Amino acid sequence: MSTSPGDDAPIGIFDSGFGGLTVARAILDQLPDEPILYLGDSARQPYGPRPIAEVRAFALEMLDRLVEEGVKILVIACNSASSAMLRDARERYDVPVIEVINPATRRAARATRNGRVGLIATEATVNSRAYEDAFAAAPHIDLVSAACPRFVEFVEEGVTMSPELLDAARGYLRPIVDAGCDTLILGCTHYPLLTGAISYVVGDGVTLVSSADETAKDVYRVLHDRGLARAEPVPEPRHRFRATGDPDVFATLGRRFLGPEIGAVEPGIVPLRRPPSAGTALSKALTT
User: Fold this and answer.
1) What is the number of other CB atoms lying within 10 angstroms of the CB of residue 51?
2) Catalytic annotation present for 148
3) What gap in Å lies between CA 128 and CA 246, rounded to an integer?
4) Per the residue annotation, which of 24, 78, 208, 258 is the catalytic one?
């Protein structure tokens, strides 16, 4: 799919829902002059429990929409989607494609002191073994992976401190602690909002690696190296946020992840393959 966006074109950021807003936050902090167009597929989230083939189809559909809007770079701010279709995306589009797995892998490989690295992620990401593939160039790394499916629920319900959360964290993180990992990759973009609980369980001696900041650094580098950064002087950037689900629900919850930059959320184009009950559980969580 070809496109010829100009320097003033936005950075396109895609996520299955809300977690990618932590990546958007890091990009806004490091590149304050760049406009972003964020598309969250909240009608079909979460991607984590879905089969890889379904995640791939959903993600490519959403990326196609961003490219049609004329973005100058694509950021796949979702570990599940990155693990399912990164190679497809880089072959499919003419614009640069940045994802969240390799930046976090590089940071973890530099940070570890004993070569034992932990990974917590969704079931789809863990089952894809995408992080094992990413660490193939670092055979000295011993990777210990654990799926933490309930962490997304806690974040989207606004729960960052509770006995139930800490009990779940102790169970999920036990293999990481028992293996003596000194570095832990937060392999889901929701998880940075639970760093307090995660660090409490694993201890201050474990370095937590969030892909958000590392991904933003990759975006910065690519924009500079390819001459895609906006030329100064530039007007104030206009950021746009779209959701395939309820835009009001997205705006309310999205502000927990990103902050006041989220104003009105535009309705996204209804996805072609939409589950009939999409968004119901999330809407209920926000109104109870």
Assistant:
1) 11
2) no
3) 30
4) 78
First-last CA distance in the chain: 43
Strand order in the sheet with 183-187: 142-147, 116-121, 183-187, 207-210
CA distance 30 to 213: 9
Rounded Cα distance between 177 and 179, Å, is 5
Q: What angle do CA 58, 45, 150 make, to 5 degrees?
A: 135
- Which of 268, 243, 244 is CA-nearest to residue 254? 243
Q: Are 135 and 110 contacting, i.e. CB atoms less than 8 angstroms apart?
A: no
Decide: 46 and 152 in contact? Cβ < 8 Å.
yes
Catalytic residue among 188, 194, 253, 282: 188
Whether 181 is catalytic is no
Q: Is this model's pTM higher than 0.70 or not?
A: yes
State yes or no: cis peptide before 235, omega within 30 of 0.
no
24 class by beta-carbon count within 10 Å (0-12 exposed, 13-18 middle, 19+ buried): buried
pLDDT digits (tens, 9 = 90+) for 181-217: 999 999 998 899 999 999 999 999 999 999 888 999 9
CA distances from 149 to 34, 236, 252 (A): 33, 39, 22
The three-class DSSP label of residue 64 is helix
Q: For 79-144, give the DSSP string.
A: HHHHHHHHHHHHHH-SS-EEESHHHHHHHHHHH-SSSEEEEEE-HHHHHHTHHHHHGGG-TT-EEE
Burial 141-162 (b: 16+ CB within 10 A, else e): bebbbbbbbebbbbbbeeeeee
**pLDDT tens digits for range 133-149:** 999 988 899 999 999 98
Report the alpha-carbon distance of residue 165 to residue 151 in Å, rounded: 8
Beta pairing partners, 37: 12, 240
Which of 85, 28, 3, 59 has its CA nearest to residue 244? 59
